[in-house]
Design brief:
By secondary structure, this protein is mainly alpha-helical. The chain is built from 14 helices and six strands. A two-stranded antiparallel ribbon has the order 1-2. A two-stranded antiparallel sheet has the order 3-4. β3 (62-64) and β4 (67-70) form a beta hairpin.
Length: 300
């Protein structure tokens, strides 16, 4: 499994999960705790059919961004299936099983991160806030191996699905989905997960493809994630983005610096905001003053 190839099956999996019953006005993921047989690889990378949405993906070998990171034995695959079932069932034994799995090192963090992303995409749209909290906590435990999975999805605008997915619309009518499209709610939730991961996410989020992603929405939530992380490196990355030519980008960065100052309590952000008081745009200056006065509201 390579990350670039993985994103399409993962999204197809999540959209397919939208066909479950309605509860409290929201559809809930269906069949997530059922047993699963991993799909056999078929054809070149990126052409295999989506994995079943009913359980974990534990294929081997495993690679991330075209980088080989390890291989699971059959015994390890079975161990992970058993541990993942505890997560899905919200079993009290999950934290111990998670820590035991991650203690293996090597490929273990990447395998867990992949499955957390698969679960996340469905939970973000149809689950409860507690599901997102559980994903965030587990992703934090995984650390750096989880960053690329969630960050890459944050900057993605849309992606054709390998296979059409049958779902239902808001009125319960059948629809066929051929393209997955990102939205602000998903990005907000992704930023929340990345801020929970914390400092390990900063190098990727502060890189050029993220701070200056093509999508204004992506750039905004990258900034918010950095602001909530609020470490020195995160603040320095935001300081570099405070000179963006677009006033809306600068306003997002000013708000993110307010998050760093007021939530992460990093005084390094104050000096950057002080300099930004001279910004030519009045809305940017408003966000600067909100940050300096402790009135910045968090998005998540």
């Amino acid at each position: 499994m390579r990350l670039r190839a993985f994103l399409v099956p993962a999204v197809a999996l999540a959209v397919a999960a939208c066909t479950g019953p309605v509860r409290n006005g929201r559809r809930t993921p269906r069949g997530l705790d059922a047993p699963v047989t991993p799909p056999a690889p078929t054809g070149p990378v990126g052409t295999a059919p989506p994995a079943p949405r009913t359980g974990p993906a534990v294929e081997a070998p495993v690679g991330v961004e075209d980088r080989y990171v390890g291989k699971l034995s059959r015994a390890e695959q079975e161990e992970f299936r058993a541990a993942w079932a505890l997560f899905v069932r919200k079993d009290a034994a999950w934290p111990e099983a998670r820590d035991r799995w991650l203690a293996r090192g090597g490929v273990s963090g990447y395998v867990l991160a992949e499955n957390l992303l698969r679960y996340f995409v469905s939970a973000s749209k149809y689950g409860e806030r507690t599901d997102l909290n559980r994903v965030a906590l587990a992703a934090k435990k995984v650390g750096e191996p989880a960053v690329a999975y969630f960050a890459s999805l944050l900057v993605l605008d849309q992606r054709p699905l390998d296979q059409p997915v049958q779902s239902v619309d808001a009125d319960g009518k059948p629809v066929t989905i051929t393209v997955w499209r990102n939205d602000d709610v998903t990005r907000q939730h992704l930023a929340y997960i990345l801020s929970a991961i914390g400092e390990p996410a900063v190098p990727m989020l502060s890189s050029e493809p993220y701070l200056r992603a093509p999508s204004p929405s992506a750039r905004r939530y990258v900034a918010y994630a950095l602001g909530r992380i609020g470490t020195d490196r995160a603040v320095d990355a935001l300081a570099s983005a405070m000179s963006a030519p677009d006033w809306q980008d600068r306003a997002s960065v000013a708000k993110a610096l307010g998050l760093a100052l007021n939530f992460a309590k990093n005084q390094r952000a104050r000096a950057v905001l002080d300099r930004a008081r001279a910004d030519p745009d009045p809305f940017v200056r408003k966000k600067v003053e909100e940050g300096l006065e402790g009135r910045t509201k968090s998005e998540f």
